[in-house]
Amino acid sequence: MIxxxxxxxxxxxxxxxxxxxxxxxxxxxxxxxxxxGINSDDSQKAIRxxxxxxxxxxxxxxPLSKIDLFSRFLKYSIDILKKNKSSFSQAGNGINxxxxxxxxxxxxxxxxxIYYDEWILELETNDVSFSPxxxxxxxDTLMSFVKGKEVEKDWLQKVGIKTSxxxxxxxxxxxxxxxxxxxxxxxxxxxxxxxxxxIALDKQLKIKLK
Length: 210
Known about the structure:
2 domains; three-stranded antiparallel β-sheet; globular
C-alpha cells in the first residue's frame, strides 16, 4: 500500500489521506503502474464505491454494478421472467424456453457469470477487501444491491399496494417493453437477449443509482 493524494482535486480535501494499490504489469520489459484512490482514513473497513476517490468511482461503479446486477438477475429472477407471459418470453419475436437449454446460455453465458462471481468473491476476501455489494439479496430486493445506494420505499410500497422500487419486476417490465417495440426483431436470440438486458439494466440503474 502507498499513500497518495492524486484522486481528489478539491482543495478542501488535500489533507485527507488517500490510499492506493499498485498493480505492476510487465509488458515488453516495461512496468505499468495502475492506481486507484480511496478517500478514507479507516483501512480496516471494506472498500465500497462511496469510499473510492471520485475518478475511480466514476470509472468503475456503473459498469461493475451493471454486470453484478445481471449476475443477480440470472440467479434470483430469471425463473420469474421465464414464467412471465408477456412479450419477452413469448415465441416469435421474444425468447422462448428452448433458448435456455442451448449452449450459448447453458454453457457459455452461465459459465462466464460463475467466473465473475468467483472473482468478485475473491476481491471481498482479500486482505484489503473490496465489497461494494450486499449479499442478502433476492428477487424482491434485487435493486438494493449496492452498499450505500439502498432503494427507499414510500408508504404505499411498504404496505404492498405498489411494487417495491427494489423489485426485479422493474427489470422484467422493461424487458417486455423493449421486445414489444420490435427494434430487436431482426437479431438472433443470443444478440436479442444480451441487448435487451443491456438496455434494461442501463435504464434501471440510472434511475435507481442516480
